[in-house]
Design goal:
Elements: H1 2-45, E1 49-55, E2 59-66, E3 69-76, E4 83-88, E5 93-98, E6 103-105, H2 126-133, E7 138-145, E8 148-155, E9 158-163, E10 169-174, E11 177-185, E12 202-203
Parallel strand pairs: 6-12
Antiparallel strand pairs: 1-2, 1-11, 2-3, 3-4, 4-5, 5-6, 7-8, 8-9, 9-10, 10-11
Helix pairs in contact: 1-2
């Protein structure tokens, strides 16, 4: 009887060990993937010349960056809410234009990086990545999206496709809201980031 009990416990211990090894390997693989994405994303974001196009159900955003100069165009699908952000980080000059109202301001925050997703953590933030890799709700797989090889990330009701080559989010969906993005590197010209003509605009008084 004791021998049967011992064999039974050995089998249980063996199964537990196998499960633990599989869990460790899964966490290690997730951590590796998240680290790889973060490193690729940092390289892409550090480039001095790129553009991206973002589209949701109600908003289109186009962004151009060249030599520390940013220009962002925001338009609602309905045609309303036409706004332009422009910023020269070399001189710290900023413009915020309401194109429909022909008004502008010379201050305001502007997006200073390409979009990142819930899966992206800072390259040096190893603890956060490790904790995320251990999250039972996180699923990491691979897929193709718009002809590009991607990681697919799912957590709760959020899903993202992240391009393997660049670490950039190409598609995200959460709570029924979808966002599609495309990127273009080393193609932005000086004309694309040229300072907007405000000669016909009225300056908004700032407090």
């Amino acid at each position: 009887m004791e021998k049967k009990t011992m064999k039974k416990w050995k089998k249980i211990v063996l199964v537990i060990c196998i499960i633990l090894v599989m869990l460790v390997l899964m966490v290690a693989w997730r951590y590796h993937v998240l680290t790889k994405i973060a490193e690729k994303n940092q390289v892409s974001n550090s480039k001095t010349n790129y553009a991206y196009h973002s589209e949701t159900e109600d908003m289109i955003m186009q962004c151009w960056k060249k030599d520390n100069i940013w220009k962002i165009q925001l338009k609602q699908i309905t045609g309303e809410g036409n706004m332009t952000f422009w910023q020269d980080n070399n001189t710290d000059e900023k413009l915020l234009l309401w194109n429909s109202q022909k008004k502008y301001a010379t201050s305001g925050e502007i997006l200073a990086a390409t979009p990142t997703g819930f899966s992206i953590t800072l390259p040096e933030d190893n603890h956060t990545r490790f904790m995320m890799a251990m999250t039972p709700m996180l699923f990491i797989g691979t897929t193709r999206y718009n002809g590009k090889s991607c990681y697919v990330m799912k957590m709760g009701n959020q899903k993202e496709y992240i391009e393997k080559e660049t670490g950039m989010v190409l598609y995200s969906k959460t709570q029924g809201s979808e966002r599609k993005l495309t990127y273009d590197f080393d193609s932005v010209t000086e004309q694309d980031v040229k300072k907007p003509d405000i000669s016909t605009y009225t300056l908004v008084e700032q407090e």
